[in-house]
Amino acid sequence: MLTAYGMIWTFLILNLLIVELMFLNPKTPAHNTLTSAGRFLGLHLGFVLALQLLLIARLPFLDRRIGMDRLTTWHRWTGFTIFWLVVLHPTFVLLGYAELDDISFLAEIANLAKQMPVLLGMIAAGLVGVVAISSVRLARRALSYEAWHAVHLVVYAIVVLAVIHQVYEGSAYKSNEFTQLYWWGLWAFAIGALLTGRVVVPLVRNARHRLKVAAVISESPDVVSVHLTGRNLGELRARPGQFFLWRFLGHNAWWQVNPFSLSAAPDGRSLRLTAKGIGSTSAGLRQLPIGTRVFAEGPYGAFTSARRVREDAVLIAGGIGVTPIRALLEDETLTGDIVVLYRVRTPGEAVLLGELQNLARLRQARLHLLTGRTGEGNQPFSAGNLLGLVPDIAQRDVFVCGPAAMTNAVLRSLRQLGVPARQRHAETFRLAS
């Protein structure tokens, strides 16, 4: 039986074989070698664009088996592949036509831009460049999450422009009825998945469950918990460790959305999120009026007990990353011996600590609060210190959520300690748009 990864590779290889055959058997031959190279790059650009739509469609099959973090890594690399194909495809086409028309490269740009389908393709290429620049690490750090997400909404405009461009300019997939049926079937599947996952399902779910704010509780000067109620919440089938994308109607604009984990195990009657005031949305949550309508997408994420393969577990939290860890500790399906490691600079920063202590007593789990500034004399997540805290860590599933630097340090130590990859589970909120 094929695993999820086996099914993905099979899908990719079969589709790539069809794409290569389409390139080798075009309806009309290319004018010269340069335009042939441009056609090759354009055909693969269309294919990779369709794959990107599937990656951001939040398909349950992929989300539950692969996890949003890994999917987002794929999304990032696919995005930069698209960027370079967008640069190279028109470059070779323009060079080819410039040679054919015996004019300069720049003159050929002005010449082809007079054709509306080509102009739309150029606009789409420019928008791809904007999205790519906003995703470079330096730019990403300078932008708020809300601004970064808003920039990525131009993906929808790119899709429309790309489809129009292909209708008028594509030739490699017009060899025969089969190639046309395949190509537009692939794009229909990708666009349909995107609209279903990002528009239809969220609209239906929110109309059915009608979430609203029931209480807002201050956990610390910069951390707040929001309790939500609604109708038939058990039908959401949310699990401890998962997250939703939240919009608080009237509190922020419709295009502003934030990923927050559930900080308590869902009970079918209410949901709770706990957030630290970092961006404009999270910082203003404590001013939410009771009764505010909430639009939520999800649940998402594979950071759940369903991924574990061993009986015992280690739950590692850093800072506000404690939220999904606290929910997992409450999860009754997470059986066996449990060790919790909670990393903060000072005890005063340990939000939800009282709840963790109560749950640890109830579950007979061991809870270690690790404090102090990280330095040469304090490396709580070095391989040696982890082994000292949990001597049998290689025989446990390890769930970790916290700042990127901490998470990377933990994963590095786990590899040194020989913890198999299937036992390492991380949630880092590198969320695809």
Explain how this protein is built.
The chain crosses the membrane at residues 7-24, 36-56, 77-98, 118-138, 150-168, 180-201. It is a multi-pass membrane protein. It is a single chain. The chain has 433 residues and is of the alpha/beta class. The protein has three domains: 4-199; 210-300, Beta Barrel (Elongation Factor Tu (Ef-tu), domain 3), CATH 2.40.30.10; 305-427, Nucleotide-binding domain of ferredoxin-NADP reductase (FNR) module (Rossmann fold, 3-Layer(aba) Sandwich). The protein is built from 15 helices and eleven strands. It has helices at 4-24, 33-56, 60-66, 68-101, 105-112, 116-135, 137-142, 145-152, 155-169, 177-209, 280-283, 322-330, 353-363, 383-389, 404-416, and strands spanning 212-220, 223-229, 243-248, 258-261, 270-276, 294-300, 313-318, 338-343, 366-370, 397-401, 424-427. The strands form three sheets. A five-stranded parallel β-sheet has the order 9-8-7-10-11, with helices on both faces. The protein has a three-stranded antiparallel β-sheet with strand order 1-2-5, with no helix packed on it. Helix 3 (60-66) packs across helix 4 (68-101) and helix 6 runs antiparallel to helix 9 (155-169).
Span between termini = 32 Å
Largest β-sheet summary: 5 strands, parallel
**What is the helix content?**
40-55%
Strand content bin: 15-25%
Q: Into how many domains do the coordinates divide?
A: 3
Keywords for this structure?
Rossmann fold, 11 strands, alpha/beta, transmembrane helix, five-stranded parallel β-sheet, 433 residues, Elongation Factor Tu (Ef-tu), domain 3, three-stranded antiparallel β-sheet, single chain
